[in-house]
Design a protein that fits this description.
Helices cover 32% and strands 22% of the residues. By secondary structure, the protein is of the alpha/beta class. The strands form three sheets. The protein has a five-stranded parallel beta sheet with strand order 5-4-6-3-7, sandwiched between helices. A hairpin with a 7-residue loop joins β10 and β11. The longest helix is centred in the middle third of the chain and has 15 residues.
Length: 303
C-alpha cells in the first residue's frame, strides 16, 4: 500500500492517505480540486480499491492435466499471474483474459528473475491489482522456495493462500512405473538436491548411498558423475538407476540402467540440462518395464 502525506490542504490540516496505486493518488488530488465533485471522486477511489492477496500454486511435474482442481480455481480468479519456465503455458488458458501475465523465467543464473526480484514483483502487483497467483512447477515446498515467497508476502501483511502441487520427486518416477517405495524393495525415500547452499556437491549423498533407501535427486544432472562415483565407492555399481528429463511431458526422455552404466545410457538417450532432470537410484528402478533385458544380461554374466 502506498502512503501519501499532504500538508496545507487547508490551514492547520494535515492529511495522510493510503492508496494501492499511483492512479488512486491522482484521483485523490483531482477530488481535492473538484469541489462539488469530491464525493463522486471518492466514490471512484473506493471502487478502485483492491484487497491484496497472493496465492501460491503448485502446477505439478509438467503435464498441464496434473494441476489440482483447486489450482485451476485459483487461476480463474487471478488479477495477475506470475509464472516461470517450468509451467506449461497451456495453463494460462484458465486465467481471465483481462488478467496481467508476468513471465519470470528460470531463476537460475538470471538476475532479472532472481528470487528477491520475484518476491518484490508479487507484492507490488498484489498491492496494485489485487489477487496475484504465483504459479510454480512441481510442489511449492520441495526445493520450490515457496516458503520464502510466503514469508516475504507476510512481511507486508498480505493475505496468502497455498495450493500444493504434485511433486515431480514422486510422480515422475511413478509415471514410469517406478515406485519410490515398494514392499520388500525399499522402505524409505531420500529426496536430495544435487548441491548444497554453496553450490558444492551435496554431502548427504554418502549417507544416502550407504542406505537401502530409494534416492531421488532433483537439480542434480550436472553432478551425475560425482554421484555415480560415490555409489561405486560403496560397492553399488550394479544398483539400478534412472535418469528422466522433462518428466510427464511430451518431450520426455528416459534412461534406465545401472550405476555403472547410467552415464553412458543417458548420453545415448540425448539427455541434457535444457529441461528439468530427475535422477533415481534404488532397487525399485528394477521394476521399470525396460529393466528386464538388463536383468537377463546380469544373469548371463553369472554363468
Amino acid at each position: 500500500m502506498y502512503v501519501f502525506f499532504i500538508s496545507g490542504i487547508e490551514e492547520g490540516v494535515d492529511v495522510v492517505i493510503e492508496a494501492s496505486s499511483v492512479r488512486l493518488w491522482g484521483l485523490f488530488i483531482n477530488s481535492l480540486k473538484g469541489g462539488k465533485q469530491m464525493d463522486k471522486q471518492f466514490t471512484e477511489v473506493e471502487r478502485l480499491y483492491v484487497e491484496p492477496k497472493i496465492t501460491i500454486v503448485g502446477a505439478g511435474p509438467g503435464d498441464p492435466d496434473l494441476i489440482s482442481v483447486k489450482g485451476v480455481k485459483a487461476l480463474k480468479t487471478a488479477d495477475v499471474i506470475i509464472y516461470d519456465a517450468l509451467v506449461d503455458e497451456e495453463l494460462l488458458n484458465y486465467v481471465p483474459k483481462e488478467a496481467t501475465r508476468v513471465y519470470v523465467g528460470n531463476p537460475s543464473g538470471d538476475e532479472n528473475f532472481s528470487q528477491p526480484t520475484v518476491n518484490q514483483l508479487m507484492v507490488d502487483y498484489a498491492l496494485n491489482f489485487g489477487h496475484v497467483v504465483r504459479l510454480k512447477g512441481g510442489d511449492l515446498f520441495v526445493f520450490g522456495r515457496g516458503y520464502e515467497e510466503l514469508d516475504f508476502a507476510a512481511s507486508y501483511s498480505i493475505e496468502t493462500a497455498i495450493v500444493p502441487g504434485i511433486s515431480s520427486a514422486i510422480s515422475v518416477p511413478g509415471l514410469q512405473g517406478i515406485p519410490v517405495t515398494h514392499k520388500g524393495g525399499s522402505d524409505s525415500l531420500w529426496i536430495l538436491s544435487g548441491t548444497d547452499g554453496d553450490g558444492k556437491l551435496n554431502p548427504e549423498f554418502r549417507d544416502a548411498a550407504a542406505s537401502k533407501a530409494t534416492v531421488v535427486v532433483l537439480l542434480g544432472y550436472d553432478q551425475l558423475h560425482d554421484i555415480v562415483e560415490i555409489y561405486k565407492s560403496v560397492g553399488k555399481g550394479r544398483l539400478p538407476a534412472a535418469v528422466i528429463q522433462n518428466g510427464s511431458m511430451k518431450n520426455e526422455k528416459v534412461a534406465i540402467g545401472l550405476v555403472n552404466t547410467i552415464e553412458e545410457v543417458a548420453k545415448e538417450e540425448a539427455i541434457d540440462n535444457t529441461g528439468p532432470v530427475l535422477l533415481v537410484f534404488g532397487q525399485t528402478v528394477s521394476l521399470h518395464k525396460s529393466f528386464y533385458h538388463i536383468l537377463d544380461f546380469l544373469e548371463g554374466q553369472q554363468y
